[in-house]
Design brief:
With 82 residues, the protein is mainly alpha-helical. 66% of the residues lie in helices and 0% in strands. It has one domain. It has helices at residues 3-20, 29-36, 41-56, 62-73. The two termini are 24 Å apart.
């Protein structure tokens, strides 16, 4: 498998898991964790955990930026996104 295929496969797993947990099919778990953090202690903990994992790789506030990215690009066809 190429690096790109592995990344796409992980993204499919992310969205699939979100659907299994009752979320939207076009939303990442990170986006949902940011959106739901004030409604549930569990989602607040999930957001903190995801942010902690991504901070190891140098990305601070991953869930916030995932949410912002989804809001900015959701209406744009994939071939026109940056």
């Amino acid at each position: 498998m190429t690096k790109g295929r592995i990344k796409r496969f992980l993204l499919v797993l992310d969205c699939g898991l979100n659907v299994l947990l009752g979320g939207w099919n076009d939303e990442w778990i990170s986006t949902r964790a940011h959106r739901m953090q004030h409604r549930s202690r569990i989602w607040a903990a999930v957001r903190k955990g995801i942010d902690a994992v991504f901070s190891v790789f140098g990305q601070e506030q991953h869930c916030l930026w995932s949410y912002v990215s989804d809001q900015m690009y959701r209406h744009i066809p994939p071939e026109q996104r940056l």
